[in-house]
Every structure is written in C-alpha cells, then in structure tokens.
Amino acid sequence: MGLCPKTNSFASLILINGREFKFRDPEGNYLTEYYHGDYYNTVNNPAIGYNELSEQLVKTTRNAKGQVVAQTVNRRLNKFDNLYWPYMSRVNLVELKKEIAKFYCDLSFYDEEANSFVTRKYYWGDFSATPCEWETVWVSGLNKHMKRPIWYKDVKCNLIDMGY
What we know:
Blueprint: E1 15-16, E2 51-62, E3 68-89, H1 90-101, E4 104-111, E5 116-139, E6 144-161
Antiparallel strand pairs: 1-4, 2-3, 3-6, 4-5, 5-6
C-alpha cells in the first residue's frame, strides 16, 4: 500500500482534546520514527484527500421593496470532511471510537483565516471502517475460539464546527 510521503509525518496535523493521535500496532506499541516493528505503512495524520469545508450562516429577510437583506451569523463554520486513514490497528480504532462516543471534542488545527493555530469545539459526524485482518482468540464465556479484527482499512470520519 503506497502512501503519499507528505502524509507520513510524525508531526501532528490535528489535536483531539489536546492529544496527539499516535498510531499503535496491535500490541499497543507506538509507531514513531524510531519504530522497528513490522508495521511501517500507517500514518499518524489523516491522508491527503480530506476536504476542509467552510460555510457562512446567514439570516435573511426581504425589505418592503422585495430586496434581500442579509446579515451574517457568527463566523464561518468549518467541517473536516472525509478524514481518512488507509490502515489502522484495533488499538487505535477503539481509541478513536471512544473519542467519537463523547460526541464533542476540542479540535486544534491551523486555521487559514486566522493565520494561526486555533482550538475550537467540534462534534463528530459519520464514521466508517472496514475490518481487513483478524486473529483467533479464545472466548471463555462461550467456550470456543472466535475471530476478532486486528487491522482496519479505509477508516473515515467527519468533524463539524459547533461555532464556539
């Protein structure tokens, strides 16, 4: 699986609730520039290809002449659409799903309009992931072996600005 080298960086693109989202292998080992395990084809940051969308809420009415009178509401709101990780371990997927279950998060990122790094309140939108590798584990409560995913591919989610 080839990745664009610009995405395979250990510097953070976004912080979720003040934390870096560092990738780990199925055993929980962090994947850093010093990692010497079997899993090199993962990235800490979303892959290139996500969209940064922006919308302006507007309060509109018409005056007596039928002309539109518009007034902006708040600042422009952002959406990180289709954040995408090509490959993710179960350890990281569980961590990401725990953040998504909280529904809200403080997202830190570089804002072009502010020309600086900002932290704003976001909520999680859609999420999807495709299991692609499994391991066999013993389930004592069922008294049998079963499969559980250890790697996922095509992990996607959205983050939507709450306007705070």
